[in-house]
Amino acid sequence: MTRDWILLALRILSPLVLYAFLGTVIRDLRKTAAPVSARLVIDDDPARVWRLSPVTTIGRSADNTIAIDDDFASVRHARLVFRGGQWWLEDMRSTNGTWLNGNRLSAPTPLHPGDTIAVGTQHYRFEQD
Question: Any residues with CB less than 8 A from the CB of 113 and at least 6 apart, and which?
Fold first, then answer.
C-alpha cells in the first residue's frame, strides 16, 4: 500500500519539478537572448549614429566596431557589452581613460539612456529603444 502512495506521489511531483525547471531555463534565456536595440550618437553631430552589436569596441584600431581617428584614444579603448539584460561600458585599460557622465570608469558600469560617454576627445550619447 505504501509503495502505491510513493509511486503516485512521484507521478504527481515529477511533472511539477520538470515545469519549474523549464520555467527557470526559459526565464534565463529571455534575459540573455537578443540585446535591446541601442546606439551611440555623436553629441555634436546627431547624423553620425552607430548601432550597437552585443559586443561593440571603440578605439583607433581598424578592427574595432567603431574605429576612430583620435590621438587621445587608445588602440583598444572601450567596450560596450550587452550582458544580463543590460548594456555595460568597460574601459579596456586605455591610457586616457573612458569617461561616463564626467566620471572616469574604474570598473564595468551599467548604461542608461541619455548617458554621455567620452573616448579620447569624442563624446557620445547612449540611446536605447
Answer: 126, 127, 128
Which residues, at least 6 apart from 71, have a Cβ–Cβ distance to it below 8 Å? 120
> Are 39 and 50 in contact, with CB atoms under 8 Å apart?
yes
Q: Residue 76's Cα: distance from chain center in Å?
A: 17
Q: Across the chain, how many H-helices and E-strands are there?
A: 1, 11
- Which candidate, 122, 121, 113, 96, places its Cα nearest to that of 52? 113
Its pTM stands at 0.72
C-alpha cell at 61: 584600431
The order of strands in the sheet holding 109-110 is: 66-67, 55-59, 78-83, 86-91, 109-110
**Which pLDDT tens digit goes with each residue over 51-64?**
999 999 999 999 99
* CA atoms of 115 and 41, how far apart (whole Å): 11
Read off the pLDDT of residues 7-19 as tens digits, 9 standing for 90 and up.
Answer: 777 788 777 767 7
